[in-house]
Amino acid sequence: MRKLSIVNGPNTNFFGIRNKEQYGSVTYESMMEEAVAYGEQRGFAVEVFQSNGEGPLIDYLQKLYHEAQAAGSAIPVVINPGAFTHYSIALMDALESVHDLVPAVEVHLSNVHAREEFRHVSWTARECIGQIAGFGKEGYKLAIDAFKALEAEGRI
Ligand code: DQA
Fold first, then answer.
1. Which residues make up the binding site for substrate (predicted)?
2. How far apart are CA 132 and CA 125, in angstroms?
């Protein structure tokens, strides 16, 4: 089974606790459980990584790159970079660095384009295949479906 990673940035582990109007009341843990089960049904071995720090997220993406290189096949990433989306050039550079072997789709639970202006900018999405925003926890599944479609087309 091809590996797929779900990577979550700062404060995503507080989904279900923080700002329920934006993010709903489903906990981070059950959201991830559902996404992992969905990915496995679609034929991916799903790994989840969450960190509140920029460095560990970058280290993890670089680790995936080496893993994909050793395995000789790309490892797709579904990433919700949290607030790093809007200002982390370091995370953008990391996504650019690994892109050939670790292609990413960006996910946001909320529709960032309908919120404060600073959320309309995504540095990280520039280095992703695309962005899915506004569908709540379903966004993770939509991103997995996107990779399934790309896989069928031989694009990953
Ligand atoms: C978020 C949107 C970001 O603007 C915010 O900083 C988050 C969550 C989302 O999933 O909607 O932490 O990434």
1. 80, 86, 93, 109-110, 119
2. 10
